[in-house]
Each structure stands twice: as C-alpha cells, then as structure tokens.
Specification:
The protein is an alpha/beta fold. It has ten helices and twelve strands. It has a single domain, classed as Carbamate kinase (3-Layer(aba) Sandwich), CATH 3.40.1160.
C-alpha cells in the first residue's frame, strides 16, 4: 500500500518570515521518517511538502498575476527548499529522491495531469520520491498546485493508499482552533463535509493555497474507494509523524466515508 505523507510548509517554517526554516523541526521529522522505514511501518512512501516561507511568499509578492517571472521564481525557490528537505532525509539514511513537480505535471486546459510512471519506477527500487507544491504550466495558462492537491492526486492515482497530512494544528476543529472553545473533530465523514466547511477557516500567516479548508474541499473531488485512510495531525508535535506512519496519533482527525 502507498503512503503519501504531506508535510505542510508551516510545520517547519514561518510563513510570516520569508525564507525562514526551523531546521530542528525538519531534522526531527526526518528522524521519525527514517525510524518508521527501519521498523517497516510503510511499504511505499511518497513525501510531499508545502511551500512554507518560500513558495507562499513569492506568490504573495506577485499578487494575482500569473507571470513568467513569478513562475521562474517559484520554480527556483521551491527547488531550493526541496533540496534542503531531501538533504535532511539523506542525513538520516532515507533514500529520498527530489522530484520537480513542474516536470511531472501539466495543465490540460483546466485539468491537472500528473505523470505517475516515474514515481512508480522509483518506488519499485525502494526510493522515497519527494515532491512539492509548485507552479504548473499548460499551453496557455499556469497556476499554483498546492502540496495538498498533489497529495490527493497521487493517493487517488496509486491505490490502495492512505494520506497523512502533517499540519501546524492537531486536526480539524469545529471553529478557529485559536478559539479556546474550539473542539477537535476526531472523525469527519466525507458526506458531511459541507457542514464542517461552514465552520472551518483557512490557515494563519501567508497562505496562497487555502489551508485546512482546501484539504477538505479536495476530499470531495479526490477521495476514491481505494484510499483506505486519511489522517490530519500536528506535525510539530514530537513523535507524531512516527505515530502517523506506524498507526494513529493520539490527537488527530480521521477523514472517512460513511460506514467505514
């Protein structure tokens, strides 16, 4: 079974401070991934990371314009961030291979198409492909593809699968998690997402891809029967990435279909 682990950029960087990284957090996550692989918790692992203080900042600087200059800068800085993430994994012995998302994906009119054959080939050799939210181009258009959307597409294309979303909060709450009265929703049924979405906000800081709301909205489009499990948890909590890869974190939200 394929495990897609998406690590939000806000887990290891501050979106409010351009090009900032929390390397200690990143190395802790790499260590937990390495330990989970050593324990055999995952058969096939694909890692997707967000833009954090790199991609989100560049896009925000350009406003709503989809210009060639923006595309070039996003591609450049996101590749730089990807190399940093891959290097952290290499230090812990993880056979990670960085992949430029814009080289595997393109826009066919408005439809996002991702070539999965290179990913399958890497998995067959035991490698861990590492992709990221990126600029994706079509013949006459371009747009930002979030790491969340990419994770959903990969999981729905290579089944059976599960998706683990490491974020900077414990999961989905019934209101803004900064509200002291907010309650964590341990289980959310896809069929009831409209009700949940009315109470869920975006993420804090600069976020050009929609935050928690987008994760849930994408579920209505990409949640296929072959996806066995979707877990949203706090990747900043020490040990939670390992718990998610090897089981279920103590505090999290599981996204399921009715009756499962």
């Amino acid at each position: 079974m394929l495990t897609v682990l998406k690590i939000g950029g806000s887990v290891f960087s501050s979106k409010e401070k351009p090009f900032s990284l929390e390397l200690r957090t990143l190395y802790n996550i790499a260590e937990e991934i390495a330990y989970a692989l050593d324990r055999g918790c995952v058969e096939n692992l694909v890692l997707v990371h967000g833009g954090g203080s790199y991609g989100h900042y560049i896009v925000a600087e350009h406003g709503a314009s989809n210009s060639l200059d923006m595309a070039v800068q996003v591609a450049y800085y996101m590749r730089e961030l990807n190399e940093i993430v891959v290097d952290a994994l290499h230090r812990l012995g993880v056979p990670a291979v960085g992949i430029d998302t814009h080289a595997l994906a393109y826009l066919e009119r408005e439809r996002l198409v991702v070539s999965i054959d290179p990913i399958l080939a890497m998995l067959s050799h035991g490698a861990v492909p590492v992709l990221y939210g990126d600029i994706v181009l079509g013949i006459e258009t371009m747009r930002i593809v979030s790491g969340d959307e990419l994770a959903w597409i990969l999981a729905s294309s290579i089944v059976p699968s599960r998706i683990l979303f490491a974020t900077n909060v414990d999961g989905v709450f019934d209101r803004d998690p900064r509200n002291p009265n907010a309650k964590l929703l341990n289980l959310v049924e896809v069929e009831k997402l409209d009700e949940v979405l009315r109470s869920v906000g975006g993420s804090s800081g600069i976020d050009v891809t929609g935050g928690m709301r987008t994760k849930l909205e994408l579920a209505t489009k990409y949640f296929v029967d072959g996806i066995r499990e979707v877990v949203i948890f706090n990747g900043r909590r020490r040990g939670y990435v390992l718990q998610a890869l090897c089981g279920i974190p103590e505090r999290c939200t599981r996204l399921v279909r009715h009756g499962t």
